[in-house]
Amino acid sequence: MAGQQRKKQQRHVIAALCNFLFDCRKITASMFTSGFLILDTHLRHVPKGNVMTNFFCSTCGSLMYRRGAGLPGASILRIGTVDDFKLGETALRPTIEQYVKHRVDWIKDIENMVQIEGQASVGQASV
């Protein structure tokens, strides 16, 4: 029964993909885009959780940074929004993977990164 229900839901998924195109990195403010296409008739939004304030680029609409109740006085900027992509490989190269218990099984540990089950503390995240 559960398998039948899952197959029924999956047929509305048109495609699932990862994309490394520079424009898509800018739009998602990340090092790559992972996403899927689905029929609008099968989409609904259910808000819940930590209160976050999002700040977007006034030109292209990309998410630039976020501020959350969990990190007062700090902002979470997106590496993918930085114009100099080389900085993502040098000065802004991540050193920590957090919430690794939620990582999908097709993405493996990144070499030489600290693995944290939950959220990194400010001290752990310092560069």
From TrEMBL:
Sorted UniProt keywords: Lyase, Metal-binding, Zinc
Keyword Metal-binding tagged: yes
Domain of life (superkingdom): Eukaryota
MF-aspect GO terms: carbon-sulfur lyase activity; metal ion binding
Domain CENP-V/GFA positions: 22-101
Pfam families: GFA
Record carries keyword Zinc: yes
Family: Belongs to the Gfa family.
Name of the protein: CENP-V/GFA domain-containing protein
Organism: Fusarium solani (Filamentous fungus)
Lineage summary: Eukaryota, Fungi, Dikarya, Ascomycota, Pezizomycotina
